What does this fold into?
Amino acid sequence: MTAAAVDQARRNFPRGLSQPESGFRFSMDALLLAAFAGREQVRGRVLDLGTGCGVVGLGLALDHPDFFGIGLDLNPDMLRHARENVCRLGFAESFALLRADACGPWGIAPESMDLVLCNPPYRDPGRGRICPDEAKTLARFERRAELVDFVRAAAYLLRNRKSCVFIHLAERVDELLDLLRVSRLQPKEVLFVHQRQDTTARLVLVRSLKNGGPGLTVHPPLILHEGRGSETRLSAAALSFCPRLACNAGSKNRNSRINGGNSESSGT
It folds into this structure.
């Protein structure tokens, strides 16, 4: 890739990313996760656990160039797209990709990561309609690995006193918080994400600290949309939190939405 092509790809991000034509494609969940994790300076070694096409880790790398990223996923097709995106964005020397299951082995030394990002499959296979497309099923449903497996992987690979950041369904926040605490990943920040001011929370973002002390900050809720019907648009708060959400919106943001399941992970 020429320097000019890389520069153009970075300006366009996340537009133009390589993704499956008919498989599971990333949505705003991934962009929200990268934005939440990137509010402070990121350095060292960062693991994107269930990387899919790489959008979470690469989005973070664009804003914080001083870290080495590792994307881990089980789906070889998604990893192929992730490699293409790594090259397009000029991160071939600072972003590695590994094929592995969330249950392990991972090919990564224990306690070697300074930050772990995770957008796991959201749903129990016994609840909801299974997708005809196998890749979509693995992305949305806990077929190969459950939430507990992703939490255990994060705890095993994360250095002491370092953070992991999860995005998940708000309805499962009690389960997520319990699993994090059991794995010595003390929840430190929680942010609930609502589609509208008058709707219940749909998603939750959680930052935990390995072997952290007690104390939890619950942030004011993030409201994604305002207006009704043809006047629906992303809220100013949503765009301030994550300006890249605008690229995921159609005319007057009518096409922007939260996915019904995991935004891109292949269920590693």
Notes: Confidence is low (pLDDT under 50) at residues 135-139, 250-268. The helical segments are 3-12, 28-37, 55-63, 76-88, 134-140, 147-157, 173-182, 236-241.
